[in-house]
Structures are given as structure tokens and as C-alpha cells.
Amino acid sequence: MKRSFVREILESIDNETISFAGGLPNEKLFPSKELKKCASKVLKNKEIYQYGLSNGIKELRQKIAKMYCNSGFKTNEENILITTGSQQAMFIISKYFENKSITLEKPSYLGAINIFKLNHIKMKEVDLKKDGIDIKKFEKSFAKTKLAYLIPDFQNPTSTTYSKTKRDEVAKIIKKYDGILIEDSPYSELYFEKKETLISSQIPNNSFHLGSFSKTLSPSLRIGWIRASKELIDSLIIIKESIDLHSSGISQYILNEYLKDDANFEKHTQKIRDDYQDKMEYFCKCLDKYLPTFKYTKPKGGMFIYGSFKKIDTFELVKKAMKEKVLFVPGNQFYTNKEKINNEIRFNYTNSSKKDIKKGIKTISKLI
Amino acid sequence: MKRSFVREILESIDNETISFAGGLPNEKLFPSKELKKCASKVLKNKEIYQYGLSNGIKELRQKIAKMYCNSGFKTNEENILITTGSQQAMFIISKYFENKSITLEKPSYLGAINIFKLNHIKMKEVDLKKDGIDIKKFEKSFAKTKLAYLIPDFQNPTSTTYSKTKRDEVAKIIKKYDGILIEDSPYSELYFEKKETLISSQIPNNSFHLGSFSKTLSPSLRIGWIRASKELIDSLIIIKESIDLHSSGISQYILNEYLKDDANFEKHTQKIRDDYQDKMEYFCKCLDKYLPTFKYTKPKGGMFIYGSFKKIDTFELVKKAMKEKVLFVPGNQFYTNKEKINNEIRFNYTNSSKKDIKKGIKTISKLI
């Protein structure tokens, strides 16, 4: 297996590069002062330096459980498993289902595609429509796989957001076949209009719901989590323990301290939403002005703008753009069969200044 | 698969328990003041909160490479992969070798045994002698598996330390069959007499050498590493990336800051060695006094005393001891076939006070 193109791109970035490639949060918004203060407070205590529980420190699991309860989704700390980023959550669950088949969106998160391959999971892709997955095709596929991987909120890469109807229909199908949904929600808090209702809340015993602090606080913490029934969590702990015993205690304690002030966390998240919405609007304006042949749907949240040209091979285009120090991800990366020529692009808008957004899009416009 | 008995025991410990079970470092020796100071210094910088490289931050890899160079083992940062504890190092390598066969010591580290099972690796156990693995049987097994997992320094669970001759013989066999050695060294720095020479230094392209800061600094950091040829490291990065993208950046940056003062780190490690040697001597004295029928070899380093009774089923004994709030690990846990009755015990001596050591051993003596 080859390394992911996006990770390779990320590692080739230098100071002069304008990158619309990765899913990087805006560095300027990291709450460094607050996190430093929290660290000073907790790093005094000797006991935080010891080995900890495989499922994560109890206080942190309780706080995450409370977030679910606040939105009406009954959850307690036994339903939570802390993971080293939600990437690890995906890996643990995939290891649990190794050699099985899975229904997923077409296109989908390429990190997940790589994890499925690594764990010998056969992937059945189902087309994404504007309001979510194609329901008829989904049911046909799910009837066989009994396992699905979906990103219903501001999907990666397409930013598609599932309608209320689609969410209900998916939940109904999962129940009908008594299967399992893996609902991946790294972007759920990055909404511009309203927070969507999790599909998992309708099927609490037939779902893994994945969350992360990477997009709201800091990816460097590497703290994500899985919400599932106690029985499913217990099965996963064996795998979690084998993979790394437990996630960084230092990260967990600092984060736990930060979350004690939930009003402040909400204020911080709102600041990110405002900043990203502003960036997104500006990005769209520049696309319309300098790349009018690029057709896209305006996102309702998240970190990406996805769209397509009529006839441009975007994999060839990115190679040219890289020479001009501008990066984006060609759409072919998000399909299980990457060989097919593809005319789509995913742009990330969260980690570039407005000046660079304009400059980067203008540079691309000169290459087509 | 069931959860590891040791982890389950660890999670059942309360304040009144005297535990000789886990491999827990002495909490009192964690350098909390220094680590807190390092955190205050690095957590100011916004850039440390961003996503990082999958193989780990460069400065930290350089410092680890320098440690190898200092002992005459040529290494640079491209030979190092930072992992979420050396537990994850084991998982990544095992995933890389999934479905293969491996030669390992009998008994061996139970975390490794669980990882091999999880990755469908067939285990071929070879007896441990007082000076290391039985060389004739090792060669016979390695000729077939071409892959070995050994813990030559203060082995877990037996505290066995390989002689110079055994190290040379193992290296020769690995070379002869052009196979691979996984050399696990979490305890190497915890020597009471002298530092041993790594087998990997004789076979730099045919080995994975695993190290960790869990025993010298803090397990809560969850920072370990793999040293291997650049080619082997590059193959592992794909798996590392899929498992958690990268290890906690917060942990890595704090640790990197701490290691800038290597004289201080060495002084700290010496303090740990002195403390553990003192505890070990006291533990042995109590064993000789209160449990004279328990036969063991005095360790030259590490965290464990291993030995056996003539005719006592230690799995039954630990169940009785648990009721009296004293814990240890019965030897059967360290064999691939745990069902066999076993008369062996692993005692950890690093995380109990002298008072508790005496009290715990006396309690056990009353149960036999």
C-alpha cells in the first residue's frame, strides 16, 4: 500500500506554499494561552504521570457523555472510549470488523479508505446525492454488508450535509437489518447555520459515533472518542489496550481541565465557526471570480469546498500547481479506485489567509 | 479474546491495595516540576498545536538518534519512528508482519503475546535459560520463522539478562538466515551494574529496536520509538499514519524540551536506578525471610523479581491474595498456553513503599 497522497503533500509544504490541501485548522485560533494555563494547573500533580485506564480518564469521559446528554442523547461514561484522535477510533473499529464488508459514501474520507484496506475490509461504495446517500442503493448494499460508514455532517470531502429525511431513512434501515452504523462526526461542531441531529441518537445500540477535539481545540492533543453501547465499548477496549495501552494522559488531563469551563469552550467554538464561515464566503467569491468554470455547492459547515470542472484532469492540474507552490487535493484520491481520471477538487479554506486564498486561486486559474 | 489479566487487575486497584502486579514506575520519582516548566515553555507557541509529521517531530527524533550514536550505534533521525508508547511500536510491527510466524521467549511479555494473537501471528516459544534464550532451539525455530521477538535486557517477566556470548550468537543467527529481530528494550536504562550492548547494534539493517520513555520519565506521555533501517521505517509509517496520524504533539514537544538538558536526564535516570536497586534488595530480603520456599534469581536491573514455588498453584494463590488486597501476577499469564497450572510468580518492586513490601509479602506467606 502507498502512503496517502494528502499526508505526503502535507509533509512537502514549506513556508512559501499556499495549501488548500489538508484539513488543517486555523493555527491562529488555537487557544494556546488557556491550554498553557490548564497545563500549569494539572502538571503539578504526580499522579497524572502514571499509567492510566485504557478507556481514558473518567472525568473526561464524563464530560463527553454530558455533551451528548445536553443534546438529548442519553449517554454515560461507560459509553465512551477515549482514542488517540478519531483516526484511531476508525482503526480500532475496523480492526474489530476485519475481513468484513462495509457500505460507504462515494467519495469518502481517504484516511478511512486506507484503514479499511489495511484491515482487509471490502468496500461497497454508494453514490452521495445533494441531501445525503442514495437511499435505495444504500439499502440494497446495507442488506448485504450490515455495516456502514457515513459522515453525515459536512462530509469529507464533499461537505454534503444529510437532510432530516435522509437521517431518518438511514436509521430505519440500520434498525430493519439490525446492523451497525459508524457515524463519523469530526466536523459536527463547525456548523454555520444549525447543529444537525446525530443519526446515532436514533439507534444508540446499533452505532459507533465518533467525535474529536482536533477541529475544535487542537489536533496535537490527539484526543478523539467513540460513543457506543457499553457492550460494544467493552469489546473495543481489548483492541485499544493492544494498540497503545491508553492515549496520552498529559493530553487528556490538560483537555479535561480546559473543558471544566464549558461556557468558554462554547465561546471558543463559536469564534471558529465565525472565522471559517467568513473564510468560506471569501473563498467562494474568489472561485466565482477567477475560476468560474469550477462548479460547487456552498457548504453549510465544515472545512471544505468540493466541486468539479467539466473536462479538466485535476490530478494533472495539481502537479502543475505544486510547481507554483499551490496545493489542493484532486478528487480521485477520495475514491476506492483512484486510477480513474477525475475532474473534481477538494479545497480546504480554513488555514489560509484571505490574501493567500486570492493569490492561490488566481495561480490555479492561470494553469487551466 | 479476553482482556489482559494484568490490565484488569490494575484497574481494580484501590487505595488500600498493595500491588506487586503491574509494571508501574515509582510515582514519587516523576520529574513533575521540570516537566511542568518545559510545558510552560513550549505551550506558548501556536504551531505546536497543529497536525504534525506521522514519524514524529524532527528535533525529538534527532535527540533519540544521538542517544544511539553516543553508545556507538550509528543512527540518524530517519531511522527513528516516534510511537504512542512502545506498546504501539509492537502493534505497528506486528501489523506489518500479520499472519507470519515468530520465535519468542518462553515466558514472554503478555502484551506482546496479545498483540501477536490479534494480528494472527503464529508463536513459537523457545525456553529461556539463565543467560538468555536456548540457542540451539532458537536457531532451529528461527530457521523457519525468520522473525524473532526478544527482550534481552532485564526481561519481562523473568528479569533475565542475556550474556555477551548469547547476544553475539543471536546476532550471528539473525545474519545467517537474513531474518529480522524485534529487540524490545523498555528496561535497558534501569541497570544496576552496567548498561548492556544492544543486539541490534550488530545487525542494524535486520532489526527493529524498541525504546520508551515510560520507565525513565513518565508513561503518561505515551512516547516510545522504533529504531530501524530507513527502508523498514518507511514501510511502517504507512501503518502508523493509519493508526493515529501521529502521537500526541503536546507530549512530544514537552519531552523534546526536557531532553535538551541531557545531563539532567542522566541524573534523573540514575536516581531511578538507585531507588529501584534499593527496593529490589529490600524485596529480596523480605522474600528470603517470609517466603523462603519461593526460589528466584536476583535481577540485575529492570522492575521485576521472578521465581517459583515447588508445588503451589499461583493462579489460585492470587485469587486468595486479592481478597486480602495484595496483588501479583501468576506466571501462567506469560505463556501462550495460559491453561496449564503454573507455580511461578512475577513480583514488581518499583511502586510500593518498603512498609508495603514487607506487609504484602507477610500477607502472602500466611496464605500458603
TrEMBL record, chains A, B:
The keyword Transferase applies. The keyword Transferase applies. Gene3D superfamilies: Aspartate Aminotransferase, domain 1, Type I PLP-dependent aspartate aminotransferase-like (Major domain). Residues 29-364 form the Aminotransferase class I/classII large domain. It comes from the Bacteria. CDD domains: AAT_like. InterPro entries: Aminotransferase_I/II_large, Class-I_PLP-dep_aminotransf, PyrdxlP-dep_Trfase, PyrdxlP-dep_Trfase_major, PyrdxlP-dep_Trfase_small. Keywords: Aminotransferase, Pyridoxal phosphate, Transferase. One of its GO terms (biological process) is alpha-amino acid metabolic process. It holds the Pfam family Aminotran_1_2. Its cofactor is pyridoxal 5'-phosphate. Coiled coil: none annotated. GO terms for molecular function: pyridoxal phosphate binding; transaminase activity. This is PLP-dependent aminotransferase. It comes from Malaciobacter pacificus.
